[in-house]
Amino acid sequence: MSSGSDTMRSQITEILSRLVAIPTAYPPGDSVEICAYAREFLDSLGYRTAIHAEKEGLDNLVASIGSGSPHLVFNAHVDTVGPGSLTDWQSDPYTLTRYAERLYGLGASNCKGSMAIQLWLAQEIARHGGPERGTVTFTFVTDEESLGPSGMSYLRRAGLVRPDMLFLGAPTANTLITAERGVMWVAIETFGQSAHAGAPETGDNAVLRMVRLVDRLVRDLVPVIEARTEEGLRSTINIGKFHGGDNTNVVPSYCRLEIDRRLLPSETLEGAVEEIVAVLRAAGEPEGSWTAELTTGTPGFSSGRDGPLVRHTAEAVEAVTGKAAVYSEAVGASDGRYFAQDGIEILNFGPGEGSRGHAA
Q1: The model's pTM
Q2: Distance (Å, whole) CA 322 – CA 328
Q3: At 159, is the secondary structure helix, strand, or coil?
Q4: What is the longest distance spanned by two Cα atoms in the chain?
């Protein structure tokens, strides 16, 4: 390995060590300290920086160099999931630890590894005098792990970031992802009449009503959804939460279920919700005894592989590794979904395995 590569590796590791040491776990996803660190780093390089927050404690950093178009935006989210049980860890989650050729720490894969690389990249761009043409912007955001609206979604809605090309740093094991499923959550509620468990026939059990609705969904909708594919992506539906009743000796009058639905790029939120509602209606439960509501959702995207961002990234991968770039499918959802309808080029590319992004 050349001395230049050694220097690069050392610099990125030092940055990552600093990032891992700053707690940003959701909840609450507090990003004030880590954005302040990144802002000081980028200010020293001559970037135009600003902190934007829709909610107190949920800071987002935007840093730009150059002017005009094209506008290339890099993105990494700074929030992480919690460490979980510390007994699952062989090291301190907030101390970057090396084992063999791997680095371990909370968020090292998802997504502070990419943040460290992007800060190093920002340093190199500044060292070379900035872009010859156009603008390069780095965005470090929170509220990603909660699928919340106060991170990259807020920057887009407020008009604070308007990319022509968006380079996301979610963990992809250095494969290229150019298409991603949308995600939506739907809450189903059922209502009944409470009664003493000793005489359940005098009440109306909301949990049993929910069971009947779920049975209809599993029978009539799940097979249809799971049979759909597009560009190698699968359409999926998952029941993630189920709660009903307060006391064992009471007929429950209320039950709530929450569904996670992953949408193909061609599927719409409206169509996916109506599909669920239509199956629930067919179950024949009394009018007013249940509701179904979209609680959050964003569509999927597919930006192709022939644009300059994807093409040149693939060429760079081959130049460095000596092997053709590999394209893969996204398991989760990235902040690119907020730009799905903007007609821009979107690429997801970063270190770390997506399947390990939430593991100890």
Answers
A1: 0.85
A2: 18
A3: coil
A4: 80
